[in-house]
Amino acid sequence: MSVGHAVLVARMELTHRWRKTTGRTSQVLAIGVGVLFGALMVFGVSTAAFYIGEGIASGEITGAVDTARLAAAVVPLFVTLMTALRVVQTSGSLTAADGMLTTVSHREAVGGVVLTELAVIGSIATLPVLAVSGTFALGVGDPLTFPFVLTALALLVLLGALLGFAVGLGVRNLIARSEWLARYKTAIGVLLFLLYFVAVSSAETGSAVLPLVDAIGASPLGWFADLALYRTDANAATLPAVGAVVIAVVAVPAVATLASRLAAALWYSSPVQPEEAAREASQMDAVAGVPRPMARIARKSWIRARRGPIRLVYVAYPLFLLFPFLQAAFVSGSVPTALPPLLVFYGAWASGAAFSLNPIGDEGPVLPVTLATPVSGRMFVGGLCLAGLVIGVPVTLALALVTGVLSGLGELALVTVALTAVALPVAAAGIAVGAGVLFPRMEEVEVMRGVETTAPSLFAFGLYSLVLAVTGIPATVVADPTVRGFAVDVLGYSESVTIASGLAVTLLLAGVAATVGYTFAVRSFDDYYLG
Amino acid sequence: MTSPFAIESTDLSKRYDDEIAVEGLDLAVRHGSVYGFLGPNGAGKTTTIRMLTTLLRPTGGEAKIDGVSIADRDAVRERIGYLPETPPLYPELTGREQLQYVAGLRDLPDAEATERIESLLDRFDLDEDADKRVSTYSKGMKQKTGIIQAILHRPKVVFLDEPTSGLDPRAARTVREVIADLAAEDTTVFLSTHILPVVDELADTVGVLFDGDLVAEGPPQKLKQRAETGDERSLEDVFLEVTQEADLPSNGATRTEAR
Ligand SMILES: Nc1ncnc2c1ncn2[C@@H]1O[C@H](COP(=O)(O)OP(=O)(O)O)[C@@H](O)[C@H]1O
Ligand SMILES: [Mg+2]
Questions:
Q1: Is A275's Cβ below 8 Å from some Cβ in B?
Q2: Residue ranges per structural domain of chain A
Q3: Pairing relation of β-strands B60-65 and B5-16?
Q4: So what's the pLDDT on residue B1?
Q5: Surface-to-core class of residue A185, CB atoms within 10 Å of its CB (0-12 exposed, 13-18 middle, 19+ buried)
Q6: Given Cys at both, which of A43, A69, A326, A358 links A222, Cβ 3.0 to 4.6 Å?
Q7: CA distance A228 to A145
Q8: Sign of the C-alpha dihedral computed for residues B86, B88, B89 and B95 taken in this order
Q9: What is the mean pLDDT for each group of 10 consecutive residues in chain A (531 residues)?
Q10: Whose CA is nearest to atom 24 of ligand 1?
Q11: Is the CB of B86 under 6 A from ligand 1?
């Protein structure tokens, strides 16, 4: 094994990633925001470290070692988790693995990948680790504190990173070996993400995690606290402090070897390919009463959505906004009157957003062929609208009626909601194709961490959501008893006239928006050139 | 519409901002012939094909496909088949679904489409894999599926951009045979490539594009004998000679000669 080769591999990999990242404005912006928040956090944590150091020196804070043991548990846990996540999602492999593995040994390659990851983590961790160690030593007023804290923190980060690497590679090995895992990995990932989301927003999570942190703090990992505070806190003992260094000296090479083994197992195995063997009967059937080109375009959209649902994950995002209302309904056992119109909005929004918000970009590499066939804009745009409406209208209508009845909406309001549940998705389809053609998104973007597809552009999302909201609001507000009461008071019309006029305005707006958007999209497609 | 040419262009040009991709291209390709469009990377082959298939608007000149101006997009699209450089496939669809989709875009009657798709899948040795997702295909299988979608509606003129790239020798031979068959059925084939033997074997006429200019054109045999001495050279020699202008002193002698 040559260290030089490993360094070379790491340098190439880093260069490659740097270029890939800085080549995209969105990524650069994200990094900028990250750096800004990171700087604020470093500032906050360092300030805290300074005052804690001062407190310990003045004897105001006692039992610092016990608290530091918890920190000694949290730091590597956090780094391990983050690294493992990165490794599972993207970075546990080389960019040009085939070529690389035939020119350097796998130890050198894995060395290179580990170095790459350490460099990335190092570039993130160095500043905070230095700052915290430094300000703490300043607060204590003893310069020799600095090397102790620094060593302890650096070793914890290093251990965490290596451990995370091994864990991540272990998970990838499982995925590579289990057909079941390989087939459902995106679904499992989405599920874990949702669980995480629920866990973070739930108050009970803290009490579940604390015992775990306590346990790790009581383990030899806690000895790093003794090392860090060796010169600061009289309670810090010599034996654990030395023990921490010994652990690091033993564990670092051991975990590195383990990671290397796991990497070799992963890279030289031929991963199971769930799709390889699978045969699927064609789903390109006709759709009754729909012209052939239009039907095929709708079918194509459905097949792609069913077999690659991750492409449409953005459609679920607004559900997070609806979450409190759904939760309230479940907890109280009664449906709030705001829910039916909100569901109508969401249903309409989703049926337009799913298939119609990026007509040109969604074609991907097929676009040149689509444009080289005589398929007309009416067929193409109509097929995309159809794909969303066939599913969106019945689902939205059913949701609206069920929740409308359950929430005890009056008859007139119920009719309003029902009519809106049909009109708004239709408007949504037209608005979506218009906005999507106006702001196409051609290149792939990250819709979730590590998952890249062509998602609609943010401008398309914005324009679409705005116009849809304006269209739907008149009918929606009059469906809600409170708002309606207010409107009746202000406008002085009777309740039914108020409802009817709200509905009429929405229907009118829906008709106009759908027609304008659809016509614009059809014309644009018919006149579309690649450059 | 009694033009003897399937593809005609006069002074066809395309510039991107300040870069000239294709300049003053004059083409005349007879019905039922195979035209080999040679040129190094970046010569302007793809740009030319995209203009002829109505995907790009020329910045100058004009062209006709089967007697129809490329400004009449619908009429041209009825007459052509097109294989782009990148296989035009959705990863989530199966090969068969992809072909049924394109047949549907062209509104081919179902019975006719099925018959064509099945016979072409068979011909290209893809029938075994037609029900697997495109995402599991090798590069060659994708390329073959792409070629089938370009010819399944029996177009009058077929444009193939680098049809043999990524194909194993066996598949490459199938492609050559299919091109020969197409020509025999009076289909015009316009194919771009930088793989010379393909053109040498198949093309009735070869055009060499360099920096947006047609620097040599003629039947492969004639091109090969064009040297002053009358010796037979390989097509590769011709290609290298006419496309090395940048390395020579700027008297342009080589270019004039080759034309
Ligand atoms: N969309 C574009 N914008 C700017 N320049 C382009 C674009 N597409 C192609 N070019 C340039 O036009 C020239 C010809 O490209 P292309 O037709 O792809 O060549 P070929 O297919 O022969 O490799 C190249 O110099 C290329 O950089
Ligand atoms: Mg090209």
A1: yes
A2: 3-267, 284-526
A3: antiparallel
A4: 52
A5: middle
A6: A69
A7: 8
A8: negative
A9: 77 78 72 85 90 86 80 85 80 58 72 82 87 90 88 90 89 81 74 71 65 80 85 80 89 88 77 61 88 96 88 80 73 80 93 94 92 96 97 95 89 90 96 95 60 76 94 85 82 84 92 96 95 79
A10: B42
A11: no
Contact check, Cβ <8 Å, A296/B133: no
Whether chain A has a CB inside 8 Å of the CB on B195: the answer is no
pTM above 0.80, yes or no: no
The secondary structure of residue B42, as a DSSP letter, is: T
Q: What is the DSSP letter of A451?
A: E
**All structural domains of chain B with their residue ranges:** 204-259
Q: Do A531 and B133 touch (CB under 8 A)?
A: no
Residue A48 corresponds to which tokens in the numbers above?
Answer: 């805290």
Which residues are CB-neighbours of B66 under 8 A, at least 6 positions away? Answer: B1, B6, B76, B79, B156, B157
ipTM for this model = 0.89
**What per-residue confidence (pLDDT) applies to B253?**
39
Residue B243, ligand 1, Cβ within 6 A: no
Q: How far, in Å, CA of A42 to CA of B160, rounded? A: 58
**Token digits of residue A497:** 């006239």
What percent of chain B clears pLDDT 70, i.e. is strictly above it?
Answer: 90
CA–CA separation, A438 and A381 (whole Å): 13
Q: Which of B72, B101, B192 to mutate to test the interface with A (most CBs of A within 10 A)?
A: B101
